[in-house]
Design a protein that fits this description.
The chain is α+β, with helices and mostly antiparallel strands and about 190 residues long. About 30% of the residues lie in helices and about 25% in strands.
Length: about 190
Amino acid sequence: MIQNYITVAWRNLLKNKAFSFITIFGLAVSIATFLLITQYVFSELSYDEFHTNADNIYRIRLDDYKQGVLTNSSTVSYYAEAPAIKETFPEVGNFVRLHRADGMISYRKPSGELVSYHEKRAFYADSSLFDVFSFSLLEGAANQVLRRPESVVISETMALKYFGGQNPIGKTLSLSSEWQGGTTSWKGCLPIFQ
């Protein structure tokens, strides 16, 4: 009996080829669109959800318009922006400013050998980074890291890349970056992220 239904459906598809094509194509496009929108929504809703205070973490974005046309969109943290927002709005509990610090990061081993890699995901950050975000530290205390200028927090992967099996705490990494056209040295490496 099911075979009979399939045969009749197949004959109708062949009899009305144009209508059948439009219907099947429309159904395929609709399903594909639904799946893409669903995936996008789930991705947006799960963004940084692992943080303890994920519901209270917001990102500020600056859109520049000239004569009604969007000319630039940026999420760079301007220095005075976050303190001014915290002072103006009592609802703001804390803030952290991030600024990209991409460049060549180097470590000179005791033997004199230089280990250097160009890092594309390095950031300057406020000391409140671990007050806002709940990253877990493998070594060190979250309330003490990034409290001094020229201190750094690195991932376990980065610690292995630069220091091998050695303890990275107390070692010095150097950053050569085009930002401000100079070289910055960091001291006191603390690995984070498992």
